[in-house]
């Protein structure tokens, strides 16, 4: 119903509401919204139409179609849909670079320090067993290497990509976009859905280092568990971050 307000996501940093065919994003961090608007203007892939902006609110038109799924849920889209998504991601990664660094562009040294601190906290607080953390910290090491920067989305979850049949109709949530490691996007997109990785890479094309993709699965999950737990999400739910960590060797 157009007169109903749906809470899409809400936590202490930001919230997204849907009213009919309009999404209202509320974010007190103006710089983050600036990045989102500029990234959508620059990206050579379908993005939502900006209807209006009045800080701290950004109004976006709803996209046609549905998402491929979500982490921890079934991803029932066809292999062709995953291949189409891969081709769209490649189109983004080959675009001219934005002028700023995004979430996927943090340096290896900075990431290593952040990861080591987070791993220690996961063990000290008892959130995860030490053996599980240590094993995945070793897997994550392969992501901490030099890479050629690309135009990255920075939070390319499958819930952020919409398709109508096998056609990509748009990508949402660009606040983490910027120059970064393209394999971070591929890993984020395939996180928890390894069974669809081959179809994704058919569309993406080129040589992709699967060891680095797996390393990003471990790294992203290790960094996310505590934040998710503290913000009302459940990384222990079936198929989510903790299950991803348990599956990696």
From TrEMBL:
This is Aminoglycoside phosphotransferase family protein. Keywords: Transferase. Pfam families: APH (PF01636). GO terms for molecular function: transferase activity. InterPro entries: AGP_Transferase, Aminoglycoside_PTrfase, Kinase-like_dom_sf. It comes from the Bacteria. The keyword Isomerase does not apply. The keyword Transferase applies. It comes from Streptomyces odorifer. Residues 43-205 form the Aminoglycoside phosphotransferase domain.
């Amino acid at each position: 119903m157009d007169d109903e307000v749906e809470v899409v996501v809400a936590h202490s940093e930001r919230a997204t509401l849907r009213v009919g065919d309009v999404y209202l994003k509320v974010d007190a961090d103006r710089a983050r919204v600036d990045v989102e608007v500029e990234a959508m203007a620059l990206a050579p892939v379908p993005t939502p139409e900006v209807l209006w902006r009045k800080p701290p609110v950004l109004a976006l038109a709803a996209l046609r179609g549905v998402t491929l799924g979500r982490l921890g849920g079934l991803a029932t889209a066809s292999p062709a849909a995953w291949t189409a998504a891969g081709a769209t991601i490649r189109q983004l990664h080959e675009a001219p670079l934005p002028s700023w660094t995004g979430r996927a562009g943090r340096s290896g040294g900075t990431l290593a320090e952040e990861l080591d601190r987070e791993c220690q906290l996961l063990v000290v607080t008892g959130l995860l067993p030490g053996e599980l953390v240590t094993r995945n910290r070793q897997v994550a090491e392969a992501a901490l290497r030099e890479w050629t920067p690309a135009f990255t989305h920075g939070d390319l979850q499958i819930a952020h990509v919409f398709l109508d049949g096998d056609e990509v109709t748009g990508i949402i949530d660009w606040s983490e976009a910027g120059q970064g490691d393209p394999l971070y996007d591929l890993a984020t997109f395939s996180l928890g859905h390894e069974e669809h990785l081959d179809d994704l890479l058919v569309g993406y094309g080129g040589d992709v280092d699967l060891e680095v993709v797996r390393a990003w699965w471990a790294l992203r999950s290790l960094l996310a568990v505590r934040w998710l737990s503290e913000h009302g999400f459940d990384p222990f739910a079936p198929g989510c971050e903790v299950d991803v960590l348990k599956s990696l060797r």
